[in-house]
TrEMBL record:
Keyword terms of this UniProt record: Hydrolase
Classification via Pfam families: Asparaginase, Asparaginase_C
Domain Asparaginase/glutaminase C-terminal per the UniProt entry, residue ranges: 211-323
InterPro entries noted in UniProt: AsnASE_II, Asp/glu_Ase-like_sf, Asparaginase/glutaminase-like, Asparaginase_C, L-asparaginase_C, L-asparaginase_N, L-asparaginase_N_sf
PANTHER family, alphabetized: 60 KDA LYSOPHOSPHOLIPASE, L-ASPARAGINASE
The protein's name: L-asparaginase
Residues bound to substrate: S57, T89, D90
Organism: Kibdelosporangium aridum
Amino acid sequence: MTDKPKLSMLTLGGTIAMTAASAQGAVVPKLDAADLLATLPELEIDLVTHDFRQLPSPDIGFTDLAALAEKIEQEIADGATGIVVTQGTDTIEESSYFLDRTIGGDVPIVMTGAMRHPQQAGPDGPANLSAAMVVAADPQARGLGTVVVMSDEVHAARYVRKSHSTSTGAFTSPNAAPIGHIVEQELVLLSRPRPYEPLPRSPRLTETSIGMVHAALGDDGDWLRPFAEHTDGLVIAGFGGGHVPSRLVPLLAELAEAKPVVLASRTSSGPVLTRTYGYPGSEQDLLSRGLINAGFLDPFKARVLLHVLVSAGADRAEITRIFHDSGEISVS
């Protein structure tokens, strides 16, 4: 006989934990870990639970994530062989990436939530939570880093996106695919992401401000300067392969001299190019003026990564190197 997996479950609120707060039926996060577990069959695991936060996911910030990462590391040090985190789905693609980049080791961190709250017909929370437990308890999941488990699919944190506002199949990995599936309550692992060395979490996380803006048709950029003045770094989500209106180029070049400015694509799939287009405002033009290529990282994950790096005091060369590696940028 083998010892049961020792899992720690941390709840942060979200749709999976919501119930009606008034006669009108609008829901708010109120259910705790015991309430969530009551919906599941008996589990063959040793489980410790922590009601860590009770928030809708738009209210989760870097202060919460830093505290969550510290608590997860404590649980791992105390012997947890797997971690399960429940939270709202609106920001799970960002919080999962933060944990993936700042927590080292082989213990799997599995995040899940729900698209339908418990008072709707066919709530998906119980099935998602059960699947997350399966993944966290499986030895195959060691070394995967942080993953998001929804609708019996396992998505790597670096790729996962919420691609629909209401569907239970909302979560996709546009630049890859699910790395695994839950089949008959077992993990079927299809691929294994390349591991990253963990990045430091600085006490300045809560003091750092990283802005994100999207290129838009006809944008003259008049509003950008006063916005950018209040940030420590900037992510520009450009058109297509990393393009902006030419009238924005002088300002972006000026900003890139003063602070790190990362160029991502607003398309949510595919990379920022490096050497295809050469007109003013093209990727070649912007990169030559000091903007940093996000590669395959979408703008939201690029912002998380830049926030971590800037708060830790990384210089431009280090930021560029880490983005080059994280964005899977071709060196040919």
